[in-house]
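The protein record quoted in full:
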Amino acid sequence: MNIMKVLYECSNWLAKVMYLHILWVVFTLAGLVVFGITPATMALCSVVHKWYDKDFDLPIFKHFYSAYKAQFKKSNILGILLMGVGLFLYIDLKISEELIQSFYLHAVILFICFVYLITVIYMFTIFVRYELPLLTYFKQSLFIALARPMETIAIMLSLFILYFLFSFVPVLFIFAGSSIVFTPLVWFSYRACLLVEEKKLHVLNNTISHTK
């Protein structure tokens, strides 16, 4: 009986992540890719975030479409900012590597690229979890990434493992790639957010108790 339940849960999860991936592809194309990929990705993360918030049976299409439509403009502006910064860093890296060829400057740029990468990784969950001014998402994402290094390392490791998994089983990437990538990414960043929130609440309670 337990085995049947496990098999049912696994097949149910697989069906949902495949369906969510299809929605991601469709809505990315609906936005002509350039204007669709960021809101579609944020909508996907919003659904996964709801799953971890103990709402695994939510109507996927309804929530996905609602998040996609509501955050279309804001997420596109954020996506343009992220791509702009990423492109700027890539150009700097190539110039440093091919023209300047300074070890110390190259190391600094690589470090900035790493900081940018972990900021982007957390950005998706921060965006769907909090309502913040646009530029504050960058600060909050970096803060949580640095405040919870174990979760950040776990995200990097999970992405590394998934890279090899998709290399050996590319069909998995075709039919459920986006959902499978963001499932661990959202989980660890969601956990990081909870732990940071709990710590802030604990500090606040201690402060209130000392002022009484």
